[in-house]
């Protein structure tokens, strides 16, 4: 991080690092509560319109939770891939179904940790609302994310106790150097006021949720409070903030991954120069695209479910046949074992196995590796294909 890369105001925030002679870290200013929106009103308004459309679309779904479950897992894969993991949706769902890493990338366990952290956070928000968005929750998210990760060199769930940096093998080559460890907690306590936002008496308008999300994410990545997992924790906070405001979760990792260079560059401009304009524009566009993608994905999954139900109705099953209950289950869990399906449906193992085999004969399910008797899986490949889809509108920056 070269001093010449910083704005004059940011240069004043540098502090020397005695353990790294000649190197400096930046202690960020307080989280801004006012960002000029001149020229950005259109992007911000479109993002909020898309969020409103998502609310309406979610309310029309017969069971939105089953769609959310699959989108959670796609987000875990995409967000983890930003950090360099290779596990795909199919591999994550296979590991979750079988508990076996055999034949799967070693980082599939890290990706499943993301699911656990995200679901933990959403449950905390469901129970406590916006008051749950605390420094303690941030620690807990990172604990779930890094628990059991073999090459993690910190203490899961604890803020860092040493200096880190972003980019470069040596600190003097870094793109950005976050604040020293002794400043982390106070910086996060300030950030918490935006996470648990309440308009101040002197403020004449409420800060829109999209602006708050953009601000929190940039400020969190500037603080970089952990040895590892900062990007993922920062992205998990975004759907939690929306959920705390009563919105369905919106997952931005797909947009951010497809536009990764712009993601990093606009964030860095905030960190080095305190210039928010292009970051907010980029982020608001991401919310719009992600909300639109969520609507399309949910609709397509429900159409697929309806098509399966229609196919089953044409083969003259009894009206109470167990097979009729499987389509909804498979939308939320497109890779299952017979044991999992039996438990989820509250039915006997033989009856569930017969129902799964029926759906396989009808082309709804596939059963790869039939010779493998342990942890034999059934795959709803059409769901996987929908989850793997990359909308053209991603590449807009």
What can you see in these coordinates?
The protein has helices at 8-11, 41-59, 64-82, 89-98, 108-128, 135-146, 181-195, 209-223, 230-244, 253-258, 260-273, 277-313, 326-332, 338-345, 349-361, 381-387, and strands at residues 14-16, 24-26, 335-337, 377-379. It has 397 residues and is mainly alpha-helical. It has two domains: 3-294, Fido-like domain (Fic-like fold); 297-387, Winged helix-like DNA-binding domain superfamily/Winged helix DNA-binding domain (Arc Repressor Mutant, subunit A). The strands form two sheets. The protein has a two-stranded antiparallel sheet with strand order 1-2. Strand 1 (14-16) and strand 2 (24-26) form a beta hairpin. Helix 8 packs antiparallel against helix 9 (230-244) and helix 14 (338-345) packs across helix 15. The chain starts with 7 loop residues before the first helix and ends in a 10-residue tail after the last helix.
Q: Tell me the fraction of residues in β-strands, as a range.
A: under 5%
H and E order? HEEHHHHHHHHHHHHEHHEH
> Mean pLDDT across all residues, rounded?
92
Number of helices: 16
């Amino acid at each position: 991080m070269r001093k010449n890369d910083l704005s004059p105001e940011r240069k004043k925030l540098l502090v020397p690092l005695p353990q790294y002679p000649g190197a400096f870290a930046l202690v960020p200013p307080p989280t801004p509560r006012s960002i000029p929106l001149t020229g950005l009103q259109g992007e911000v308004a479109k993002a909020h319109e898309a969020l409103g459309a998502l609310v309406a679309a979610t309310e029309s779904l017969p069971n939105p939770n089953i769609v959310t479950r699959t989108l959670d897992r796609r987000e875990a894969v995409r967000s983890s891939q930003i950090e360099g993991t290779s596990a795909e949706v199919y591999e994550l769902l296979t590991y979750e179904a079988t508990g076996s890493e055999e034949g799967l990338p070693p980082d599939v366990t890290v990706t499943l940790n993301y699911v656990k952290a995200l679901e933990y956070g959403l449950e905390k928000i469901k129970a406590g609302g916006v008051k749950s968005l605390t420094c303690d929750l941030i620690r807990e998210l990172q604990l779930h994310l890094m628990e059991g990760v073999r090459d993690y060199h910190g203490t899961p769930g604890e803020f860092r106790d040493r200096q880190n940096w972003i980019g470069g093998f040596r600190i003097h080559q870094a793109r950005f150097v976050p604040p020293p460890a002794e400043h982390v907690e106070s910086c996060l306590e300030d950030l918490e006021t935006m996470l648990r936002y309440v308009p101040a008496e002197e403020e004449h308008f409420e800060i829109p949720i999209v602006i708050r999300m953009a601000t929190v994410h940039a400020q969190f990545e500037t603080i970089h409070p952990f040895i590892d997992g900062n990007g993922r924790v920062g992205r998990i906070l975004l759907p939690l903030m929306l959920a705390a405001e009563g919105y369905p979760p919106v997952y931005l990792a797909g947009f951010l991954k497809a536009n990764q260079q712009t993601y990093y560059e606009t964030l860095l401009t905030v960190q080095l120069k305190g210039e928010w304009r292009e970051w907010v524009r980029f982020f608001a566009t991401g919310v719009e695209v992600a909300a639109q993608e969520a609507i399309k994905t949910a609709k397509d999954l429900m159409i697929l479910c309806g098509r399966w139900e229609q196919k089953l109705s044409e083969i003259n099953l009894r009206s109470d046949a167990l097979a009729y209950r499987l389509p909804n289950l498979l939308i939320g869990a497109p890779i299952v074992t017979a044991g999992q399906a039996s438990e989820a449906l509250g039915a006997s193992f033989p009856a569930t196995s017969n129902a799964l085999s029926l759906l396989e004969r009808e082309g709804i399910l596939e059963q790869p590796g039939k010779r493998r008797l342990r942890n034999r899986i059934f795959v709803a490949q059409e769901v996987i294909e929908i989850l793997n889809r990359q909308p053209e509108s991603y590449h807009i920056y």
